[in-house]
Amino acid sequence: MTHIILFGPPGAGKGTQAERIRDNYNFLHISTGDVFRYNIKNETALGKRAKSFIDRGELVPDDVTIKMLAGEMRQADDKNGIIFDGFPRTKAQAKALDDLLNEQNEKIDALISLDVDDNILIERLKERGKTSGRKDDADENVIRNRIQVYYTETEVVKEHYNEQNKLQKVDGVGDIEAITKRLNKVIDQLI
Ligand code: ADP
């Protein structure tokens, strides 16, 4: 199985591109943000735990997130691989993911970083906020906080996989189809 992390700050286009990768390659797509939102909507115990963090633009605690992720990964049996979208977001999550895969004699094949300028990110998220119904897209302060959290807590994950020679960079600015083509080129080399 192929295991790819699609990486980048909020608004980089991970969700949009991950769905395309899922369909093109028959991968399981795990979006931790989507799983949290599903749980919030259905008012599960997990959703109740996660909601306040998400609404403030903070990260949900690692123990909660890692446990949830491990559960989601069990759905990958009939797939060619997994595309991780929004996970790992901390160094502890990256180590936990490496350990989980290691136990199954699997590994991360690549972290693909979608590079987009901060000004463009803020514009995209504000635009998305008009239709997404997401509270965390509706408030510019929360958007800024999420980008800040990306730099303080999440960017280290890129370095973690760079040290393993697994970092691949892709320009995340342009039209959706053009970016998909760039990503496909990278993924075709991995499978
Ligand atoms: P975006 O990439 O636009 O921030 P996501 O849907 O990936 O959107 O995430 C939304 C929110 O869900 C994050 O701001 C965070 O609060 C929470 N979240 C998602 N993934 C994780 C994670 N791996 N660890 C902790 N919190 C997470």
Write out key terms for the chains shown.
alpha/beta; five-stranded parallel β-sheet; 191 residues; globular; Rossmann fold; binds adenosine-5'-diphosphate; 9 helices
Which structural class is indicated by helix and strand composition? alpha/beta
Which percent band covers the strand fraction? Answer: 5-15%
Q: Unreliable runs, pLDDT <50, ≥5 residues?
A: none
Quickly name the level 1 CATH class.
Alpha Beta
Outline type = globular
From the N-terminal CA to the C-terminal CA, the straight-line distance is 8 Å
Would you identify the CATH architecture? Answer: 3-Layer(aba) Sandwich
Number of alpha- plus pi-helical segments:
9
Helical fraction equals: 55-70%
